[in-house]
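Below is one such record:
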Amino acid sequence: MSTLYTKKVILHDLGSPYDGMIQAKCDQMIAADGKYAPCQGCFGCWTKHPAECFMKDLLRQACRIIGQADELVIITQNLYGEYSAAVKNVLDRSIGTSTPFSTYRSRQMHHTLRYGKHALWKVIVYGDITEEEKATFRYRAERNAINDGYTRSEVVFIQALSELEDLL
């Protein structure tokens, strides 16, 4: 498999005490700290200014950072089988990784990828979680990976954050 990017991006909601450890394990880090405005749904990152949000905050370039990642690792607290609100906010703000045009991939309709194919969409989940929530997370990660052009997805559930460093 040939890829254009070799960049590993880690998106996390762990808070600043973990930033140093995470930065040492990736090329670029996005801290989902809950301080960002939510997506306004204007679709400007699709049309007016491709892959760039009009809001002038640290997520302005999130589309480009995530779009150019060959490996995206998402570290999130479980929220009823879904990403934490802070992580979901960042993912919503990165819709510009695709274009408004549609195409068929894997016999399904998806948006055309702005940055091409990627290797791995990996989700590391911490916090209490039921078997049903685990199944939801696996399904969500698989569908996100397909939609965003990743060739594979992986979900890892951890009991303690001390397990994290070995997984990155």
Remarks:
- The longest helix spans residues 131-147.
- The two ends are 22 Å apart (CA to CA).
- The chain has one domain: 7-167.
